[in-house]
Amino acid sequence: MTITSELRDDGIRVVTMEHPPVNALTVQGWFDVAAALAEASADMDTKVVVLRAEGRGFNAGVDIKEMQHTSGFDALIGANKGCYAAFKAVYECSVPVIAAVNGFCVGGGVGLVGNADCIVASDDAYFGVPEVNQGALGAATHMARLVPPHMLRTLYFTARTIKAVDLVQFGSVLETVPREELMDAALRVATDIASKDTRVIRAAKEALNGIDPVDVNKSYRFEQGFTFEALVRAIYRSDLKDLTLVSWGGADVGLLTRAGKVRKLVYAFVSLDSVPLEPNFQKARQEGTIPEVVELDEGMFNTGLQAAAQRLPFLPMRAGLGSDVLVNNPWIKTIESPYDEGFGHETLVAVPALRLDVALVHMNRADQHGNATYLGPDPYFDDLFCMAADRAYVSCEQVVDTAGLSHDTPVQRLLLNRMMVSGVVETPNGAHFTTCTPDYERDERFQRAYAAAAGGSEEDWQAFHDRFLTGDEAAYQAAVAAFQEEQA
Question: What is the reported pTM?
Answer without folding.
Answer: 0.59
